[in-house]
Amino acid sequence: MIRIPFLFLLLVLLGACARQPAVKDDVNQQAWKQHQLSMMSLNDWKIQGRVGLYTADEAWPGDLLWQQSAAQYDMRIIAPMGAGNLHIYSVQGGVMLEHSSNTEAMFTPNPELLIQQEFGWILPIRHLRYWITGVPSPLESIQGALDTDAQGRLKTLQQSGWNISFLAYTNMNGYELPQKVLLEHRDLSIKIVVRKWQI
Question: Which long-range contacts (CB under 8 A, 24 or more apart) does 54-62 make?
Answer without folding.
Answer: 54/188, 54/189, 54/190, 54/191, 55/121, 55/187, 55/188, 55/189, 56/187, 60/84, 62/86
